[in-house]
Design brief:
alpha+beta, six-stranded antiparallel beta barrel, 3 helices, four-stranded antiparallel β-sheet
């Protein structure tokens, strides 16, 4: 093998190996401020550690127990009834029920009494527009006058016809008399002449009877015609009188002394009080006159609690609008059947109840929100223990009574109770100091 076929590669040049730089033993020159910061931090930490070690350990705060004194007095259990005020003595003012043929027509209030004003019995409190009905009455008056004229005219015509019929009867009667006289002289006549006279007499008598019968029928017909005209006149007269009564009823007067309370109607997509210009209908209640000296609270109680209520139970009545005003009252009406509330659950039944308010005040008006605390039970000379000081443990009740610097646990027997106090039958006495909560 020759060197030309296998050439020899040239040797590569190796890089020199550099030795690592030595680490300086001290801080680099020119940066001494970092070491000063480190020393300051260490010194501050040591100072605070020594200071905290020399301070005394904090003590736990002392909690003071709330206490109350046991007192004696009257204990009552009451149930609150919420509702609104209304009058026991009042009069509903409704749209008059008209007697005329158009009895269901709507009516327009021309003027009304001012809501909240006081009125006396007999005072005009509402006037309904009656102009169109008055115009109709005027037309009926003309119709009645025309009907009366028709009756007079018909009677005159009948009088002429009756006189004509009477004349006819007199003529036929004379013909009968003449035929009877001619027949009386028939003895001197031939048989044929006598037969002719007899036929003439029979014909005259028949005509006379027919004239009398015609008179009877004519008189019956005349009477029927007059009866029809009289009935027509009576119908128009009654029609007019009914409208006159309606016009009279359109002026409404107060049936009693009292306060004017206007009803609310739906106008312009909102509820508002009735006012002049509104349309009402027969039987529609649009006003109420109330005697504010006979007020009551209308409410409802749960069906479960209704068994606790009795007629004559006393109550204390409060008002949301007048916090300082209160009255005494008593239960005077309890509903016999329970009903459902339209805004409540169908399964929640309530019993209506009415509580009479004893007393009067100018501020006491209908539709005030009110509440009445009805006294269900009451007992005098009871040891009153706050409910907050009583603790239920199983079937027993305990109270913690202060004895020196500690509290003693006592079992308490309870009697009548309400939401705030309970009557302690045993275990507590007047003057004991008990712990609350």
């Amino acid at each position: 093998m020759s060197a030309a076929s296998h050439p020899i590669s040239a040797p590569t040049k190796q890089q020199p190996i550099l030795a690592p730089k030595p680490v300086p033993a001290g801080p680099p020159p020119g940066k001494p401020w970092k070491w000063l910061i480190l020393l300051a931090v260490v010194a501050a930490g040591a100072f605070y550690w020594v200071r905290s070690a020399n301070q005394p350990a904090p003590t736990a705060p002392i909690v003071a127990a709330k206490t109350a004194k046991i007192t004696a007095g009257t204990l009552t259990r009451s149930i609150r009834v919420s509702g609104q005020t209304s009058a026991r003595d009042f009069a509903n003012i409704t749209g008059p029920r008209m007697q005329g043929p158009d009895a269901n027509r709507e009516m327009v209030l021309e003027k009304t009494a001012t809501a909240g004003s006081w009125v006396k019995k007999g005072t005009v409190i509402a006037v309904i527009d009656s102009q169109s009905m008055q115009d109709h009455v005027d037309d009926l008056e003309d119709t009645i006058v025309a009907a009366q004229a028709d009756i007079r005219k018909r009677k005159a015509e009948q009088a002429i016809d009756i006189e004509s019929m009477q004349q006819t009867i007199r003529v036929t009667k004379a013909q009968v008399d003449k035929a009877r006289l001619d027949y009386g002289a028939s003895e001197v006549r031939t048989d044929i002449e006598r037969q002719i006279l007899k036929l003439s007499l029979d014909e005259a008598e028949a005509q006379y009877k027919q004239a009398q019968t015609d008179v009877e029928f004519k008189m019956a017909g005349f009477a029927a015609d007059l009866k029809v005209l009289d009935l027509t006149l009576e119908r128009h007269t009654r029609h007019r009188n009914r409208h006159l009564n309606d016009i009279k009823a359109f002026t409404i007067r107060a049936p009693m002394d009292g306060l004017v309370v206007m009803s609310s109607i739906f106008r312009n997509n909102e509820m508002s009080q009735v006012q002049a210009g509104d349309r009402i209908f027969p039987g529609m209640a649009f006003m109420k006159i109330v005697n504010t000296n006979t007020m009551q609270v209308e409410g409802a109680v749960n069906q479960v609690e209704s068994d606790d209520f009795r007629l004559g139970q006393k109550a204390r009545i409060l008002f949301d609008a007048f916090p300082g005003m209160q009255f005494q009252g008593e239960v005077h009406t309890i509903g016999a059947l329970a009903g459902g509330s339209p805004r409540g659950s169908a399964y929640l039944r309530t019993v209506p109840i009415r509580i009479k308010i004893n007393g009067a005040d100018p501020r006491l008006i209908p539709d005030l929100s009110a509440s009445a605390d009805v006294v269900i039970e009451s007992a005098d000379n009871q040891v009153l223990a706050p409910r907050a000081a009583l603790h239920q443990e199983g079937d027993k009740v305990y109270a913690y009574v202060k004895k020196g610097e500690t509290f003693e646990k006592r079992e308490v027997t309870l009697g009548l109770r309400n939401d705030i106090y309970a009557a302690a039958v045993s275990g507590l006495k007047t003057g004991d100091e008990v712990r609350l909560n």
